[in-house]
Specification:
Its cofactor is Co(2+); Fe(2+); Mn(2+); Zn(2+). The protein is of the alpha/beta class. It contains eight helices and eight strands; from the N terminus they run βαβαβαβαββαβαβαα. The structure holds ribulose-5-phosphate and fe (ii) ion.
Length: 221
């Protein structure tokens, strides 16, 4: 199975987000964290900024929506050209319908779980998803410490996917770095978001290569 490195531009220079994408253009995706100051206690950017970044055509974008009412807002992120749209299960009223809407607008659909959310909530619509995002920090801020206690959740979801022969990716997001990526890969993750580890490195593009090398060696399904 292919592994994917998706740099999060959350802690890049907010006045130069286009340049941040160019700095990691060797990655597979760019991860764009949308926060509304309601679902999480932080505010980033919204649809017009994300649309402008899509139009730079540097990398496919993965929008991680940490917002209330994704049922209303998520399809628009697909419509402006995000390659993948991730909503939080906890905020969503009708996940089955939302997944259909995201697909109808041409994007891959993913559901995210906060650290305290039992993965069993995904069971009713798991097979319709393209990806599951297991948060490895409390959503809201970059630069937090990776929570190793989330690895059993990754393992559990990977076992369900294997048992049901489902080709669904598992993304981990929060505190991922060269120190823990191998563990996450061995637990069953195959899409790795890293913000501070990449943008605080002297050379973000070479850090992408380092993380990709670790992923290729340890992704194991
Ligand atoms: O969703 C997020 C926070 O809610 C970010 O994607 C994530 O935290 C990336 O930054 P870092 O690698 O610094 O943790
Ligand atoms: Fe994120």
């Amino acid at each position: 199975m292919m592994s994917t490195i998706s740099p999060s531009i959350l802690n890049a220079d907010a006045a130069n987000l286009g340049a941040a994408l160019v700095a990691v253009s060797n990655a597979d995706f760019a991860h764009v964290d949308v926060m509304d100051n309601h679902f999480v206690p932080n505010l980033t950017w919204g649809l017009p900024v994300v649309e402008a970044l899509v139009n730079r055509n540097v990398l496919p974008l993965d929008a991680h929506l940490m917002i209330e009412d994704p049922d209303r807002w998520a399809p628009a992120y697909a419509e402006v050209g995000c390659a993948s749209v991730t909503f939080h299960h906890e905020a969503c009223r009708d996940p089955k319908k939302l997944v259909k809407e995201i697909h109808r607008h041409g994007a891959l659909a993913a559901a995210a779980l906060k650290p305290g959310t039992d993965p069993k909530v995904l069971k009713p619509y798991l097979s319709e998803l393209d990806m599951v995002l297991v948060m490895t920090v409390e959503p809201g801020f970059g630069g937090q410490a990776f929570m190793p206690q989330m690895l059993p959740k990754v393992q559990e979801i990977r076992q369900w996917l294997k048992a049901e022969n489902l080709e669904i990716r598992i993304q981990v997001d929060g505190g991922i770095s060269r120190a823990n990526l191998a563990q996450a890969a061995e637990a069953g993750a195959d899409v790795f978001v890293a913000g501070s580890a990449i943008f605080r490195a002297n050379n973000p593009a070479s850090e992408v290569e380092v993380l990709r090398g670790i992923a290729q060696e340890h992704v194991c399904h």
